[in-house]
Amino acid sequence: MTELNLFNTLSRSKEIFKPLKKSAVTLYNCGPTVYHDQHIGNFRTAMTVDILKRTLLHFGYQVKHITNITDVGHLTDDVGGTGEDKMEVGARREGVSARAVARKYEKLYKADLTLLGNIPPFKWTRATEHIDEQIALIKKLERKGYTYRTSDGIYFDSVRDTDYGKLAGLKSMKLRAGARVDVGEKKNPSDFALWKFAAAGVKRQMEWPSPWGVGFPGWHIECSAMAMKYLGETIDIHAGGIDLIPVHHTNEIAQSECATGKLFVRFWVHGAFVIEGEEKMSKSKGNVKTMEWITAEGFSPQDYRYLTLQTHYRKELSVTIESLRAAQVAYNQIAEFIRNAPRRAGVVNKEKMAAFDCAIADDLNMPRAIAVLWDVLRGSDTAVNKRATILAFDEVFGLQLKRLKKDSADALPDVVKKLLIDRNNARANKNWAASDHLRSEIRTHGFDVMDTPEGQSVVRVLY
Ligand SMILES: [Zn+2]
After folding, report:
1. What's the pLDDT band for 202 if we cut at 50, 70, 90?
2. Sign (positive/negative) of CA torsion 218, 221, 222, 223?
3. Are residues 263 and 293 located together in one domain of the fold?
């Protein structure tokens, strides 16, 4: 079996990946906060996780994959741990309940993932459906002396965790404790809420009783509680966007490892940002793009998926109309070949498959794997075998090429249609010279004709 090398944020180096248990790789990724449309950067991260999962499946592993749905507790200031719950913001904006907002955006998110070709996780876990597990974990931390109480909640005491900040290499998190920042009642700037109390006199839409008083869980605790419930106290791979490293994932590690005394995650995999030209996409810059924007501009979800495959997941991806257009042209050429190649069982090219395996095993190097696909397309294999090889690659790319329908005959130019009829007649009369001549003529119009048991099959010449 090819050895899979993955870049691990924890060690800042590529390491050979082997799962803890032979039975299945355990994989967790942080899902969306469902109070708003997700932007295309979130979908890029989700596709990176999907590519990772498909690569593991390709190399023969079983994968047990969980994604959470944050439907409570994510505050507008998620670094400082203050502000308003984003779900309540969404509820006010749309004039419906927080729960209705959550379900609406969860549904939209899942629908977009389906269009993008992602394999759904084994389980979607909602934070609001795991309140007991979160309370149990906080109680465990409390028993071990890692928590303290302020007037607005129960906090994690990050100074008690000697490893705090190891994922981000942030000894500075502690240094900042001495800086003059307003930490409110917190002992240190990096301390974070495990449980927040509902403000006195305010009835929240989402609140639950707890040993400390009525309130709701902090954002970070949900991921630790749900990951450990379904995947065990030590999981193989935890993935997410790089923006989650310094706070969210740092805090997940702190609370999980202090509670269990065990390593929480063996491999941390982080995807880079999407940028527009040179600029990071962000709400404050007002340049946030959604999947709706992609389709409104005339691109398909597959065009966007193809575009993401062309850039390594740890590099920033520039999404512009021009980059999408180039991706669309390339994707269409591949799609057209697959649509029109004869639908017979072919033989996968072993040499190309080895090159493909080598690329994806090198920290999911999809740009190199895509280059192998083009080698196959331009190579000298028969169309039947090219199709078989490309469809085998697509089990990892997830471009859903297998689902493409054959081009209808009306998609061909009239002149080509007429030449095909002539050639068909020539072959029926066993006039092979005329048949060959007509094949050359069809080629001058940009089409290659092949003879299959089902008759003539036409593909567009790519070059
Ligand atoms: Zn998370």
Report:
1. confident
2. positive
3. no
